[in-house]
């Protein structure tokens, strides 16, 4: 028989009540966060293993809350998705990432690709393709410099997603499937969706050791190669994982070992210094 909490305690659930209240407050704050410039982006560079001449990074949003301090996206993106605030927030992320990447390209005089995370709710918004195309036009970022990351959970409704992805691809941007292996979507999606890149979820990368091959990682990489997809390993933290991936067909690595997510100002200042040398 299931363990039951005695009735008198169930009437009063302080932790739940508290967190619900807190969620409501945060949700309200989120609306103001955009206007008050409390959101900012960090960028996590990727290490390319095959091509040496281009630079890629992923944009990750952060919220500098006036009282609570730094709030990670895992704590507010789900709220933003629920309340719908993700639509203007997502648009701001796209705009900012494209503008800053364009500036970086001009500074270092070379191709830079930026990957931006999308929420399903953004895609459902009727004008999403239009939003992306006007941001590209406004910022003058070459479309091929923008990669849009979707997750497996979004691929569930293929009939809905397919035309949008095709319209996005027609703009010239590329699409990555994020957190691959973590969700439950069928492998057949890989064949049917116009995807350019597959990002192996951190959990698989975590399990790798140097002296033994990890069958699932090898399988994902070889499958990606057969489908002509770029493959990026996420969450690389140790030299063991690094060496493992060096001995594979993986195209790029991302993770704390290579770099933590960093401020745009830091990236651009470092590039300026390099350019002077
Ligand atoms: P994600 O897209 O899978 O992003 C990678 C997350 O892993 C980031 O967490 C990054 O800081 C973290 N990470 C990178 N390397 C390592 C590593 O070596 N070890 C470990 N343990 N973690 C690593 P972050 O920035 O907290 O973002 C969490 C999630 O929030 C993201 O997961 C993404 O799903 C979502 N997110 C972030 N920014 C946005 C955004 O602008 N829009 C939307 N819709 N979602 C976003
Ligand atoms: Ca991502
Ligand atoms: Ca991921
Ligand atoms: Ca994720």
From TrEMBL:
Residues 23-275 form the EAL domain. The keyword Transcription regulation does not apply. Keywords: Membrane, Transmembrane, Transmembrane helix. One of its GO terms (molecular function) is cyclic-guanylate-specific phosphodiesterase activity. This is Diguanylate cyclase (GGDEF)-like protein. The chain holds residues 230 to 506 of 533 of the full protein.
